[in-house]
Design a protein that fits this description.
Elements lengths: L1 H17 L12 H11 L12 H17 L2 E2 L8 E6 L14 H12 L2 E10 L8 E7 L4 E2 L8 E2 L2 H18 L7 E7 L7 H8 L8 E6 L13 E4 L6 H10 L19 H5 L5 E5 L5 H8 L17 H17 L17
């Protein structure tokens, strides 16, 4: 009997040696660190982060360094680590010039003057411990409108909410995921020229560095610093999204209520996730910003695409912090080999 017990004990020890340790717990993302990153990206030094300008050069260098410092591998194909170049074709000038001089008008006129150019997505990867040919994707666009109002005192559209908030959250999530020891690869993509018509996301979808069919879940972060802490979680996704159960489960795990009224669905085609969703990749925007349409519309009618979209001491980052931590939970679930959804249909929606 003693020999039998010792034999069983030996088997147990041997078995334990082959079982990988569970993912390391991730410290909660804080408002302080989000504010620090947002303050940097939305500072005047970055000149409004317009693609094709000196503001782009500063922005992508900063974001690439943050990925390197976090321990991410480069996922880019260009000569510079983390920077994935894509071409932007010159946009013809309008036959009839706009009569107004809004920030959007100035931005559009600037685009028409730039001609052909190269912009960049910033791409990093956290490699999984037990890869199975599947991957998780996180996206956020880094660009904004640049020097958009030269006739006034405040010339720069700094884009604090749109979308330094999403960039800060993505970087914070990447810093956690880099040390969690998850099963699957997790790709972090900061896209350029979103304000030009989702161009960076479309370039990524047209020439992806990983098979689109391998992406089991994708999450886009855009304009997340809208709702206060404790807001319900809503989502923007293609109809009948297979990711809805995952978002509901993650929200409940974070102690948040679910909002399933889909009142913000009309934003589906206005965000980077659509460039992949229309090809059948499961993509979702999830968080508190989309659960209260009145709050979102108030931002869209005031600071959106204006020099006034700045980070202030009074800017409430409670909801953004909640949403950043929600995405740590979403990635943790999706990057497990136990998470499965029906294989994505990699073709354009409606084909």
């Amino acid at each position: 009997m003693k020999r039998f017990i010792l034999g069983i004990a030996a088997l147990l020890v041997a078995g334990c040696a082959t079982v990988p340790p569970p993912p390391a717990p991730a410290p909660a993302i804080t408002q302080v660190e989000l504010r620090e990153t947002m303050a940097m990206l939305s500072s005047d030094a970055f000149e409004g982060r317009m693609a094709g300008t000196a503001g782009e050069t500063k922005t992508i260098a900063y974001l690439a360094e943050r990925m390197r410092a976090a321990g991410l591998s480069s996922g880019a194909r260009g000569p510079t680590p983390y920077l994935d170049p894509f071409a932007i074709v010159a946009r013809p000038a309008r036959v009839v010039a706009p009569t107004g001089k809004s920030a959007q008008d100035v931005f559009t006129a600037h685009i028409e003057q730039l001609g052909n150019l190269t912009s960049h997505n910033v791409v990093g990867v956290v490699r999984g411990r037990h890869p199975d040919g599947r991957a998780v994707l996180m996206m956020a666009h880094w660009d904004h409108l640049g020097i958009c109002a030269p006739a006034v005192v405040d010339k720069i559209c700094n884009g604090a909410i749109d979308n330094a908030s999403g960039d800060a959250a993505l970087i914070a999530v990447a810093e956690r995921v880099a040390h969690m020891g998850l099963d699957r690869d997790v790709w972090f993509v900061l896209t350029g020229a979103e304000e030009w018509g989702l161009l960076g996301a479309k370039a990524f979808a047209d020439n992806p560095p990983l098979p689109l069919a391998s992406i089991v879940a994708g999450f886009n972060l855009d304009t997340i610093a809208i709702a206060p802490a404790g807001a319900r979680v809503a989502m923007i996704a293609a109809p009948d999204s297979p990711l809805e159960p995952l978002v509901i489960e993650a929200a409940r795990a974070m102690g948040r209520q679910w909002d399933g009224d889909h009142e913000a669905d009309n934003f589906l085609r206005r965000q980077d996730g659509w460039a992949l969703a229309e090809r059948g990749v499961p993509m979702v925007m999830a968080g508190g910003s989309f659960s209260d349409l009145a709050l979102l519309n108030a931002f869209l009618k005031s600071d959106y695409h204006q020099p006034s979209d700045e980070l202030r001491p009074s800017t409430d980052l409670g909801g953004a912090t909640d949403d950043a931590n929600l995405h740590v939970e979403l990635v943790r679930h999706a990057a497990s080999r136990h998470f499965k959804i029906r294989p994505p249909r990699v073709e354009r929606v409606g084909d």
